Amino acid sequence: AQTVTQSQPEMSVQEAETVTLSCTYDTSESDYYLFWYKQPPSRQMILVIRQEAYKQQNATENRFSVNFQKAAKSFSLKISDSQLGDAAMYFCAYRFRLNYGGSQGNLIFGKGTKLSVKP
Amino acid sequence: EPEVTQTPSHQVTQMGQEVILRCVPISNHLYFYWYRQILGQKVEFLVSFYNNEISEKSEIFDDQFSVERPDGSNFTLKIRSTKLEDSAMYFCASSRNREAGYTFGSGTRLTVV
Questions:
Q1: B89 has a chain A CB within 8 A of its CB
Q2: Do A45 and B45 touch (CB under 8 A)?
Q3: What is the arithmetic mean of pLDDT over B8-16?
Q4: Could you tell me which chain B residue has the CA closest to the CA of A44?
Q5: From residue A53, how far is each of B9, B74, B92 by CA, in Å?
Q6: Which of these, B12, B14, B36, B13, lies nearest to B23 by C-alpha position?
Q7: Neighbours of A62 (CB within 10 A)
Q8: Do the Cβ atoms of B107 and A44 come within 8 Å?
């Protein structure tokens, strides 16, 4: 079974600095998606960034970028120039791409990392 | 930008009562999902729905749960006889196809007392 592990329950960063959140996953599949979701205090789940496993190039969205290491099954999120509004829970998630075993490819989430941003 | 809308945002119910959580997915999306998040825990998959039928469900989604798309726009989750442990945040999500990412709603916080 696929699993997603976020080993950092909490992280803290100074405003304008850079922080990296870690995520590892376990799968026997070769084709899948990886995501980072942000959950602010409002509890809404907001997609931050997405990576297709078949793409070697790391995804980037403005101040957010990932370091995708497929062989190591690692998918870290880097937030540059951190802002106060970045404070939230961040969830790493995995979804296999093909219709494996009849599944629609549901998201499997890690336990999350709570990011605090200090002014 | 299109949104997934969930109502109510917060519902308090007595143990043993039935609740219906409502969701309006994005209009051109074809795949619908319910996830839940017990406070302080990870987000867990409940059920996926496509072509007017359940396509997959988790072990959590037992006989007390049901889903319905009654009118082509709403997507509901019914819990027949709520238990204290059903207290959680329930998220609806939709996607255009299996390849696309999900769009989540803002969630319904269900409190069972």
A1: yes
A2: no
A3: 96
A4: B106
A5: 35, 33, 26
A6: B36
A7: 10
A8: yes
